[in-house]
Amino acid sequence: MRNIRIGKNTSNNKKTGLYIRVSTNFQFEEGYSVGAQTEKLEKYCNYQEIDNYDLYIDGGYSGSNLNRPEMKRLIKEIQEGKVESVVVVKLDRLSRSQKDTIYLLEDVFEANDVGFISLNENFDTTTPYGKAMVGILSVFAQYERENIRERTQMGITERIKTGKWRGTKPPFGYDYNNGDDVLVPNKDAETVRKIFELYKEGYSTYALAKMFDLKGDKQVSDMLSRVTYIGKLKYNKEIVDGLHEPIVDKKLFDEVQELRKTRTRATSHKSQYLLTGLIYCGLCGAKMRYQKWSGGRVMIYCYSLDHSKPHLVKNPNCQNGKLDAAEVEEVVVSDMLKLSKEYEVIEEKSEQQNQKGFEAMNQRKSVLEGKLKSLYNLYASDTNNSVLLETIGEINKELENLNTQIEQYTLKNTRAKDMTARAKAFKSVADSWEFMSFNERQKTVREYIKKIKISNDYVEIEYNDLLTLQ
């Protein structure tokens, strides 16, 4: 955005840069609107008899970084030798970052012999006092950098001890309430609960990551170990009660931790059997195990009949028989491959329509953002125009609603595509099975089969949700 005013040339043809910034919520910054800042800066120029000046207006940009179009233009023109001084109404209009402020003062302004003036703070680097202040600021900035880690660690410890969130990015399923310094469950909280429940039912972290469109099984593993979800906070080795609302019941959380230990032990050494961990007794509900017999034959039988592990016994009088492992595996694999061949991949019928709607919303967003930039320019010239201000507010509100809709569409389409991709992957299992290694076959079985129940010579296969929807 540019709004340039040219007056009489000075002797060296260099101009004064009047920098103006308003945040994204500029209408709430009383006294610092574009119009108010422009008026103060032009009065300063009139008082100082400065005729050659240029306005650099960044409307709707945060001061937390220097990624602003007019700030970039100002820096570029300073480096080209076109600017002799920069004036702002208040120091935080230049930047809210101490690091960026020091960078501008030392590496941009001072390095190019450009003076800097902030009216509110009476800060002027063209004077000996102002130059000394830049040096003092640099010393304090260095001191701050050296001590920030220590202060941060102390601050985090104290916050956590009182049950408040540390102020960093909140865990998945929570938002951060900056006013109360606590975590608040958001729309993803139900997903977190579902992940704990499904893991307890036997789903792997890999399957859950794909099901809920997460960043791999590591994210799921991290979630399952977070005490934050039961209302606790952890810092280093210390765990304290948090002020936030729990998402997961403690009983479920503890059960999941025990399961994770069991599964970790189970996967620490690779099983030599295809269905390990998936087979259960259909009569008493106990787990079933593989056992080698003499002559190399391998059988499957109920843990209730294995008195060496009493904690796994459900019914010591279980009448389930011993079955040949090769026969059970053949039944299971044949059924899975048959289902794979017959499986119909149902594409999202509304996918094209959703895509058109998504494109239309993005086009509308671009139009609104263009209008907003134009209105900022108009408002800079006419700060008393209440109609302009009202229109800007309405567009901001529409943009906010539009961004929410775009986010929802993106999430829905991503999940739909993931389900379709998983379905297509299952469809290809029948064709690729004979080319898979044992580990790949074992992983495939766990991906699509939830549980196998054996009742004497009857095998019941429970597939994961993806395969039970049709």
UniProtKB/TrEMBL annotation:
<keyword id="KW-0238">DNA-binding</keyword>
<feature type="active site" description="O-(5'-phospho-DNA)-serine intermediate">
    <location>
        <position position="23"/>
    </location>
</feature>
<dbReference type="GO" id="GO:0015074">
    <property type="term" value="P:DNA integration"/>
</dbReference>
<keyword id="KW-0229">DNA integration</keyword>
<dbReference type="GO" id="GO:0003677">
    <property type="term" value="F:DNA binding"/>
</dbReference>
<dbReference type="InterPro" id="IPR006119">
    <property type="entry name" value="Resolv_N"/>
</dbReference>
<feature type="coiled-coil region">
    <location>
        <begin position="385"/>
        <end position="419"/>
    </location>
</feature>
<dbReference type="InterPro" id="IPR025827">
    <property type="entry name" value="Zn_ribbon_recom_dom"/>
</dbReference>
<protein>
    <submittedName>
        <fullName>Recombinase family protein</fullName>
    </submittedName>
</protein>
<dbReference type="InterPro" id="IPR011109">
    <property type="entry name" value="DNA_bind_recombinase_dom"/>
</dbReference>
<dbReference type="InterPro" id="IPR038109">
    <property type="entry name" value="DNA_bind_recomb_sf"/>
</dbReference>
<dbReference type="Pfam" id="PF13408">
    <property type="entry name" value="Zn_ribbon_recom"/>
</dbReference>
<keyword id="KW-0175">Coiled coil</keyword>
<feature type="domain" description="Resolvase/invertase-type recombinase catalytic">
    <location>
        <begin position="15"/>
        <end position="163"/>
    </location>
</feature>
<dbReference type="Pfam" id="PF07508">
    <property type="entry name" value="Recombinase"/>
</dbReference>
<keyword id="KW-0233">DNA recombination</keyword>
<dbReference type="InterPro" id="IPR006118">
    <property type="entry name" value="Recombinase_CS"/>
</dbReference>
<dbReference type="Pfam" id="PF00239">
    <property type="entry name" value="Resolvase"/>
</dbReference>
<dbReference type="InterPro" id="IPR036162">
    <property type="entry name" value="Resolvase-like_N_sf"/>
</dbReference>
<feature type="domain" description="Recombinase">
    <location>
        <begin position="171"/>
        <end position="266"/>
    </location>
</feature>
<dbReference type="InterPro" id="IPR050639">
    <property type="entry name" value="SSR_resolvase"/>
</dbReference>
<dbReference type="GO" id="GO:0000150">
    <property type="term" value="F:DNA strand exchange activity"/>
</dbReference>
